[in-house]
Write a structure and sequence with these properties.
Two copies of one chain form a homodimer. By secondary structure, the first copy, chain A, is an alpha+beta fold. The first copy, chain A, contains ten helices and seven strands. In chain A, a hairpin with a 4-residue loop joins strand 6 and strand 7. In chain A, helix 3 packs across helix 6 and helix 7 packs across helix 8.
Chain lengths: ~300, ~300
C-alpha cells in the first residue's frame, strides 16, 4: 500500500522476470518507510525425507568456518543449519535455564549445531557426515561430536541454542549486537571485537553465537561478574556497541545483519553508510513518499 | 556510476545486511537507465565432484514439469540443468546443423536434457536418477532415456540444445519470444499460445525449448513450410508476438524472462505493466536521473 493509498500488486510467482525495475526488492527491508507490505508469495521446497542433526565440539570459530567449508563441499545444500555457540553462551544456558545439561562430559571451547536434510538421494547422509567428521578430526578442527539418535535428543540440543537470549536475560541482560561480515572475515571480527571490548571494559563476558553460514554473529556483551548489569549497561552500552559496530564496519560488514535500522540505529546508519548511498536512499524516499507519511523518523 | 558522475561503491560480500534500502537490487535489471554497473562481487560454489547427464524422452511439457518435481524431490539442488526441447526444435537442429544426429532410434514428442552435480555425498547420483526414472516410467511420463557415458556424448547432447537458435536462423529465422510463468502454468502457456498462434496463422511451426526449472520458455515461431520467412515475419511478427505475449501476461507471466525491455519492448511494458508500477518506476527514474542522461529512451 503506497503513501497515497494506491495498492501496487507485486505478487508474482515468477522466477525470471526482466521487465523494468525490481520494485519488490525496494519495499523489502525498507521497514515500511516507502509503503506497507500486506501480502507475500512463498516459495515452497519439498519436505525433507531424511534428516541428521549433529553437535560438534570445535576448537574455535575459525575451526567452525573451516568445518562449514568441508561439509558444504561434501553435502552441498543438504546443510540447512550451521549454528555456532561459544562455550560462555552454553554456560549461560546451563546456569540459567531449567532442564538443560551439557551433552558432552568435558568442556569444549565452542560448538556447532549442524543439521542436514535431504531427499531419497540423501540416504547416505550420515555416512557422509561421518566421513567429513573424520577429515575434520584429522585436521584438528573438531573434538568430540554427537549425532542425534532421537527427536528428543535433537530438541534438547536445539533448546540449548534457542534459549541463549532467555539465559542472557535471566543473567541480568546483555548489550546485544547483530553483526555480519563476509564468511572469511568472521573469525577476525570475533577476535578483534572481543579484544577491543575486553581491553576497554575489563571483566566483561561475551556471549557469542550465530549463523556461521550467513557470516552473521550475535555478539552480546554481559557485565563483569559482580557488577550490577543495569548500572553497567547504562554506563557502557554506547561505548561497547561503538567498538563492536566499528569493528564490523571496518571489515566491510554490517551493524544490522537481521534486525534492521528502525530509530535505534538510525544515527549509526548516518555515520557508517556512504554519503552517496544515503543521498540515493533519501532521493528515493522523497520520490515515493514526498509527504514523509510512512513510518516517519525511521531508517533515514 | 551515477548520472552526476559520482561512484557509489555497492560491492559487498555480505549474505545478510539489513541497513537501509537495497540499492544494488535497484540497479540490477535497470538496463543502465539509473547508472552504469562497473564491478560485481561473485559468489563461488564448490566445484562439483560428480556429474551425471541424462537425455529423457517425455510425452509432453506437462510430463517434463512433473519429472522436474520428482527429480527435485529426490535430488534437490543436485539438479543444475533441466532443459526442455520439443521435437520440432530438435528436428530443426538435425536438418540444419552439421554433425548432429538423433540420439534415439524412435522419434519422441519432446525431450529433457537433465544434469546433476554433487559433492562426495552424490556418489549415488546415478542410482538415484535411475530410481526416479523408474518411477516416472511407471507413471507414463517418460519414454526412453539415456545417461551420458562420456564427455563427448554429453557435449553432443548439449550441442543439440545450444544449436537451436542457429538452426532457426539457418531455416530462415523465427519470431522469438522469451516468456515466463509460474512453473505450474507452463504447460497451459505452451498449449494456449500454440493454439492461438496456429489458429490465427495456420501452418506456422513452433520451435519451443527452455529452462523448465525457471518457468521460462523460448517460444519461437517459424513461417509455414513453403512461405518466404522474411515476408512472413514482416507481415505477421507483430500479430504473432501479441498473441504470445498476451497469453503469458494473462497467466500472470512475463514477456521478457531473460532479455530485458530495451527499446524494442518499451511499448509492450507500457501496456502490460500496471499503471501504478509504471508510476513508481518513473518517479524513481526522475529522482535518480532527473536530467534523463542514462540510456535515454530505454525501458520506460
Amino acid at each position: 500500500v503506497l503513501p497515497d493509498g494506491r495498492i501496487w500488486d507485486g505478487l508474482s510467482a515468477l522466477r525470471k522476470d526482466n521487465t523494468g525495475y525490481d520494485l519488490k526488492q525496494l519495499f523489502l527491508g525498507a521497514e515500511g518507510t516507502l509503503g506497507v507490505i500486506t501480502a507475500a508469495v512463498c516459495k515452497l521446497f519439498p519436505a525433507p525425507i531424511t534428516r541428521e542433526t549433529a553437535l560438534c565440539a570445535v576448537t574455535e570459530l575459525a575451526a567452525a568456518c573451516r568445518l562449514l567449508g568441508m561439509v558444504r563441499r561434501s553435502l552441498g545444500d543438504c546443510v540447512v543449519s550451521f549454528e555456532f555457540l561459544a562455550r560462555p553462551a552454553l554456560e549461560l544456558v546451563l546456569a540459567n535455564i531449567s532442564d538443560t545439561r551439557d551433552p558432552f562430559v568435558a568442556a569444549h571451547p565452542a560448538y556447532v549445531l549442524l543439521e542436514l536434510t535431504g531427499g531419497h538421494a540423501a540416504r547416505g547422509l550420515r555416512e557422509e557426515l561421518m566421513a567429513v567428521y573424520a577429515d575434520a578430526e584429522a585436521q584438528g578442527l573438531v573434538g568430540d561430536a554427537l549425532i542425534a539418535e532421537s527427536e528428543s535428543q535433537r530438541s534438547a540440543w536445539w533448546r540449548l541454542r534457542e534459549q541463549i537470549p532467555a539465559a542472557e536475560r535471566a543473567a541480568g541482560g546483555s548489550i546485544k549486537h547483530d553483526v555480519s561480515v563476509a564468511l572469511a572475515d568472521l573469525p577476525t571480527l570475533a577476535q578483534r571485537a572481543g579484544a577491543a571490548v575486553v581491553s576497554r571494559h575489563p571483566g566483561v563476558r561475551v556471549s557469542m553465537y550465530g549463523h556461521v553460514g550467513d557470516g552473521n554473529l550475535h555478539f552480546n556483551v554481559l557485565a563483569p561478574v559482580g557488577a550490577d548489569p543495569e548500572t553497567f549497561r547504562a554506563a557502557h552500552a554506547a561505548s561497547v556497541s561503538d567498538l563492536v559496530h566499528r569493528t564490523a564496519v571496518e571489515l566491510g560488514g554490517s551493524f544490522s545483519a537481521e534486525h534492521g535500522v528502525g530509530q535505534l540505529k538510525r544515527d549509526l546508519l548516518r555515520v557508517t553508510e556512504s554519503p552517496i548511498a544515503l543521498d540515493l536512499m533519501r532521493e528515493i524516499k522523497a520520490a515515493v513518499d514526498p509527504k514523509d507519511l510512512m513510518n516517519p523518523g525511521k531508517v533515514l
